[in-house]
Automatic annotation (TrEMBL):
Chain positions recorded as [4Fe-4S] cluster binding sites: C159, C226
Iron found in the keyword field: yes
Cofactor note: Binds 1 [4Fe-4S] cluster.
Protein known as: Phosphogluconate dehydratase
Enzyme class, UniProt record, top EC level: lyase
Length: 615
């Protein structure tokens, strides 16, 4: 039986979204009915249009595209070989085309989308384009699918803004089935505890750049997703729980036989669920209110990335669904934390996979009534299909049905990484929503020690993260309790960069026995760690938020346990201090091209999107 709070929140989302969701589905279903009645989409193109569409295709595919029987499958790829997570996609298009061809369809690379690496741009000007890139990716996806050549899509993306952007764009074509095809995490490298210790030592000047670089290179060492549980791996977990991956596809390492088999299986499945088969599975019907609530539950139960408090709101809106932070707060009270992955623990996603992975995680949440089972997925009807894990039958060739799914009935094999719902690491979710006279914010508590969940201390106010780092270097933050306030970092001010560079120095001070925390209208990334933080503060400083009125010495109380964020000072009569950069000051590193985004982007609480409200 479904937990009553899960049911209540879902019903609230349905009621709130009735008008916008209804309008979205009416448009999508009309487009889907046309496809089902008239055959493959390209059949409606004029001869010149269609000839352009297959001019460069190999002879066999060209013959298929000239006809009106074979479904067309779009491949939208975020391949580049700078992102370790996306480098494996280099070989995916020919593999997918071959598998689609064998299944009776024709696949084409419809387009590419940008994929920037937040790990490279942390603390740099380029990070101020990172959040905006999600909406650019959504637009690029829409352009790729706009050619009316396709009956389904295969979406190749892993990392931070790429997966949400692909999904938002694909939902504009919600009548088409869509399957996300993951690439998998790199194998484990330098243990996370050792890496974190090296970063703090570097922040304190105890080791040099070369030694620090050696440590980082030992951690990030091969193709595949970074192994810590940040936004990229949260993306992957959520796509599976939402039924947009094949069961068990999420955390299989690149370049393995199982990974190749899953990639081919995704291509075959895309053909099977087109509008012209017996299992038509439009994306719009997969991403419904229950799937969105399932995603929030999975985020909380896994202690996932705080970035998804924005991305899930934006993805839901693209499907005509209005999700709020209040919904997340209500769910957080009944969803326990059942995983420990770095930065919430020392294990990485490979350890999670070895402990039982997604099949055990989803199965336990289903058994506890915390996930909706009666949902449509790309694998079929019912989330119970995702209790199964993919395996290769020994000695069988891949094309001869070597890939099968076995239901996982055994529990987690490592309860330090993955626990049953009845014995959680924490009784409530790993992300809390905060509210008070400073506004509304998000706090990731899964990695914070209980004694650090409440802090009351004077503010130290900064308008730039570099100023805080400089103050640390000068020793001005030593020997005192304080709440660092870093403002003018919201989406309207400068694109809402991640401020993850601030974690090591603040962690140093925390380890010295000081009480420290951070309050910001910016982000702290999916790798937010042990420093208590109130992030995504809304309204932001550049949009009239109270954070712009704070002064050094104002006492701030951050209570992540109670869900409150309060300044214990009278702000009446104060005028804002500081200001966001002007467009001229913000220029450089391509940022000037995004000036219009700064003027139109919505608040963090509404998904920080340039697209406005729901569909």
């Amino acid at each position: 039986m479904t937990n009553p709070v899960i049911t209540e929140v879902t019903e609230r989302v349905v009621a709130r979204s009735r008008e916008s969701r209804g309008a979205y589905l009416e448009r999508v279903r009309r487009a889907g009915a046309e496809l089902r009645e008239r055959g493959p989409a390209r059949g409606r193109l004029g001869c010149a249009n269609l000839a352009h569409g297959f001019a460069a295709a190999p002879a066999e595919d060209k013959l298929g595209l000239r006809g009106t029987a074979k479904p067309g499958v779009a491949i939208v790829t975020s391949y580049n070989d700078m992102l370790s997570a996306h480098q494996p996609y280099e070989t995916y298009p020919p593999e997918l085309k071959r598998a689609v061809r064998e299944a009776g369809g024709v696949a084409q690379v419809a387009g590419g989308v940008p994929a920037m690496c937040d790990g490279v741009t942390q603390g740099r000007a380029g990070m101020e384009l990172s959040l905006y890139s999600r909406d650019v990716i959504a637009m690029a996806t829409a352009i790729a699918l706009s050619h009316d050549m396709f009956d389904a899509s295969l979406l190749l993306g892993v990392c931070d803004k790429i997966v949400p952007g692909l999904l938002i764009g694909a939902l504009r074509f919600g009548h088409l089935p869509a399957i996300f095809v993951p690439a998998g995490p790199m194998t484990s490298g330098l243990p996370n505890k050792v890496k974190a210790r090296a970063r703090q030592a570097f922040a304190e000047g105890k080791i040099g750049r070369l030694e620090m670089l050696d440590a980082e290179a030992s951690s990030y060492h091969s193709p595949g997703t970074c192994t810590f549980y940040g936004t990229a791996n949260s993306n992957q977990l959520l796509m599976e729980v939402m039924g947009l991956h094949l069961p068990g596809a999420t955390f299989v390492n690149p370049h393995t036989e199982l990974r190749r088999a899953l990639t081919a299986a995704a291509a075959r499945r895309a053909v099977e669920i087109t509008p012209h088969g017996a299992e038509y599975t439009p994306l719009a019907e997969v991403v419904d209110e229950k799937a969105i609530v399932n995603a929030v539950v999975a985020l909380l139960a896994s202690g996932g990335s705080t970035n998804h408090t924005m991305h899930l709101v934006a993805m839901a809106a693209a499907a005509g669904i209005e999700l709020t932070w209040d919904d997340m707060a209500a769910l957080s009270k009944v969803v326990p934390l059942i995983t420990r992955m770095y930065p919430n623990g020392q294990a990485d996603v490979n350890h999670f996979q070895a402990a039982g992975g997604m099949a055990v995680f989803i199965g336990d949440l289903l058994d506890a009534g915390l996930l909706h089972e009666d949902v449509l997925t790309v694998a079929g009807r019912g989330l119970g299909l995702y209790r199964s894990a993919p395996v290769l039958k020994e000695g069988a060739a891949l094309k001869d049905g070597a890939l099968v799914w076995d239901e996982r009935t055994e529990p987690s094999t490592d309860t330090e990484v993955l626990r049953p719902v009845a014995e959680p690491f924490s009784s409530d979710g790993g992300i809390h929503m905060l509210s008070g006279n400073l506004g509304r914010a998000v706090s990731k508590v899964s990695a914070v020690k209980p004694e650090h969940l409440v802090i009351e201390a004077p503010a130290k106010v900064f308008d730039d993260q570099l100023d805080l780092l400089a103050a640390f270097e000068r020793g001005e933050l030593d020997g005192q309790d304080f709440v660092a306030v870093v403002r003018y970092q919201g989406p309207r001010a400068n694109g809402m960069p991640e401020l993850h560079k601030l974690t090591p120095p603040l962690a140093v001070l925390l380890d010295r026995g000081q009480k420290v925390a951070i309050v910001t209208d910016g982000r702290m990334s999916g790798a937010s760690g042990k420093v208590p933080a109130a992030i995504h503060l809304s309204p932001e400083a550049a949009d009239g938020g109270a954070i712009a009125l704070l002064r050094d010495g104002d006492v701030i109380r951050l209570d992540s346990a109670a869900g409150t964020l309060t300044v214990l000072a009278d702000l009446t009569g104060r005028t804002p201090e500081g200001a966001p950069l002007t467009d001229e000051q913000w220029a450089g590193t391509g940022r000037e091209l995004f000036a219009s985004f700064r003027r139109t982007v919505g608040p963090a609480e509404r998904g920080a999107s340039v697209f406005g409200g729901a569909a």
